[in-house]
Write a structure and sequence with these properties.
The protein has about 425 residues and is an alpha/beta fold. The chain is built from 19 helices and ten strands. The two termini are about 25 Å apart.
Length: about 425
């Protein structure tokens, strides 16, 4: 995945120096920008979907937005289809985001698009594809290519602070400095997906010194008034480009949750999901009470996935919503899936397929011993994935495998050890 993304980034760097493949079109008294390849009829249809009136979107049409009360953040090298399948054994309702895929990666790799876009349907739904890039034409094409795979929404990355992306790549968080380009991109993505699924944006609250609430609100206003975007996922930290690593950008800039709360009040016709620093059910519930439409969780789910196995009941109010699986049952079902996947790929994916369960027992007294046993079993080339999981599980007391979701014995966030 990383090699293909890197080659895609090189292509983006070239495209960023070229003028966008757009043309102007007048509709009524308004001028809009559309891809040169878009027909006039399609432009009028897209304009109806956007519902732009110059003063906002009081009445919106178009594809229905997802119920994203809780969602899994897109994370490179983590949220692949195997982890998403694993997480579906813990929650049916959580909205799952893919790793970011650059538009050039999909456009250039015609013979391997399944590798990047195929997922475990229908098990993974609802699932959102995140795309990266800065060229409207390429992102329109990427959205068109992705449409047959039946994702539930497509999200544009305007929040990644990586130097490789926001610096030389000229996209990610750097796009927040160009709201008109973001609107053009999202319009093109809506056209590429034929207006059939929501187009959304994930961003920060600002970039470098451009970090006032007023600048954030202006970004939201300009993007939403000139594109089909009605949903913004906002990481409540600013991005510091060129000075901090991606990991530091997740920790150093202060969280400003009131910025997101205020957006919800000042743009009642739009939806906002809050991201950043969410570690527990209590955090999720607190933010929802403040008026945000959804909460996105990232590293906290990777670090302690089983803690979140009660999320459907907690947020959606019905115990029957939970898959209700114990960790032993999760390992049994995931092991069967992983074994099938590994056999299909000729036994090359054992380590990748065991990665999702690495922290299944995080915070438990035997958690470290399980991880050590997992790593040791992977050294034996004669063991299949299911056998690796069974070997590692054998070091655990049976009672630990039988704990139900929501049990008070599951370590609380403040006591989890990684």
């Amino acid at each position: 995945m990383l090699a293909a993304v890197t080659s895609g980034l090189a292509f983006v760097q070239q495209q960023a120096r070229l003028p966008a493949k757009l043309r102007k079109l007048t509709i009524g008294k308004r001028m809009i920008m559309i891809p040169k390849s878009m027909s006039i009829k399609s432009a009028h249809r897209m304009d109806e979907i956007r519902g732009a009136t110059g003063g906002g979107h009081d009445e919106m049409t178009g594809p229905l937005l997802l119920d994203e009360r809780i969602s899994l953040a897109p994370m490179m090298e983590y949220t692949d289809r195997h982890f998403r399948f694993f997480l579906r054994l813990l929650s049916k309702r959580m909205v799952l985001y893919t790793e970011m895929i650059t538009a050039p990666t999909l456009y250039l790799n015609k013979d391997s698009r399944d590798r990047f876009l195929k997922f475990n349907a229908p098990a993974e739904h609802p699932v959102v594809l995140q795309l990266g890039g800065s060229d409207p034409f390429l992102l329109s094409e990427a959205s068109r290519i992705a449409l047959p795979y039946n994702y539930d929404a497509i999200n544009l990355n305007c929040g990644c602070p990586s130097e490789r992306v926001s610096g030389r790549g000229c996209f990610g968080a750097a796009l927040m400095r160009e709201p008109e380009r973001v609107a053009d991109i999202c319009t093109a993505m809506g056209e590429g997906s034929e207006g059939r699924i929501p187009i959304t944006v994930k961003c920060r609250i600002g970039v470098d010194d451009e970090d006032s609430y007023e600048q954030l609100a202006e970004f939201v206003r300009r993007v939403s008034c000139a594109s089909p975007v009605r949903h913004f996922v906002v990481h409540a930290r600013k991005a510091i480009l060129g000075g901090l690593s991606p990991d530091q950008n997740r920790r150093v800039p202060p969280l400003k949750y009131p910025f997101v709360y205020r957006l919800c009040k000042e743009f009642p016709h739009l939806r906002f999901t809050l991201n950043g620093g969410v570690l527990s059910y209590e955090d999720v519930e607190t933010h929802l009470k403040e008026g945000v439409h959804g909460v996105m969780v990232g590293r906290a789910i990777i670090a302690r996935p089983f803690y979140w196995s009660d999320i459907d009941a907690r947020l959606y109010g019905a115990v029957g919503e939970n898959p209700g699986l114990t960790r032993g049952e999760i390992l049994h079902q995931y092991g069967a899936y992983a074994e099938e996947e590994d056999v299909r790929e000729g036994g090359r994916l054992r380590r990748l397929l065991t990665k999702p369960v690495h922290h299944l027992f995080a915070g438990e007294p035997m958690g470290k011993r399980f991880r050590a046993a997992l790593d040791q079993a992977l050294l034996d080339p004669t063991l299949g994935v299911r056998q690796v999981l069974e070997t590692a599980t054998a070091v655990l007391p049976p009672a630990l495998l039988e704990v139900k979701p929501g049990s008070p014995s599951i370590p609380a966030p403040e006591t989890v050890r990684h």
